[in-house]
Task: inverse folding
């Protein structure tokens, strides 16, 4: 099962970074390249413990839907979302936040299992793991820009 880890430092307070990372409208801004939008569930504002959201996005030129649920939250230090329906066999995305000086260190840990058994494992090695790592990094870079610009939720 691939595990993608990425750390980003943001020159912004921990509460702000935590809220921005779970804010639906900010999520759509950070995933513009896949045209991600919330279509059902908690489609506006901050995602909270126990809430689910269905995202629609285009990946590999195919429009897809994925439903995720927030299963753990320790505000403002950590929240975890899992896929409950979608293209993966499963995934868990852990978002962790630590105060560092005048800013915040955000740690993403994305663990997933591809569908289709051996074919999925081959896809991981050929392109999917790299694609998902790029997706996580790009989203973190965009989130950093937004948090450091002084936007409000």
Result:
């Amino acid at each position: 099962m691939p595990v993608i880890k990425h750390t980003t430092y943001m020159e912004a307070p921990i509460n702000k970074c935590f809220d921005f990372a779970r804010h639906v409208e900010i999520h759509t801004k950070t995933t513009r390249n896949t045209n991600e939008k919330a279509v059902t569930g908690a489609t506006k504002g901050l995602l909270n413990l126990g809430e689910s959201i269905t995202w629609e996005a285009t990946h590999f030129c195919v429009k897809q839907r994925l439903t995720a649920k927030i299963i753990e939250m320790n505000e403002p230090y950590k929240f975890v979302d899992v896929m409950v329906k979608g293209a993966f066999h499963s995934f868990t995305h852990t978002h962790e936040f630590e105060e560092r000086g005048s800013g915040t260190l955000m740690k993403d840990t994305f663990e997933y299992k591809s569908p289709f058994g051996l074919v999925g494992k081959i896809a991981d090695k050929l392109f999917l793991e790299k694609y998902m790592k790029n997706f996580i990094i790009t989203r973190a870079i965009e989130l950093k820009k937004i948090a450091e610009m002084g936007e409000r939720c």
Remarks:
- The first helix runs from residue 14 to 21.
- The mean pLDDT is 94.
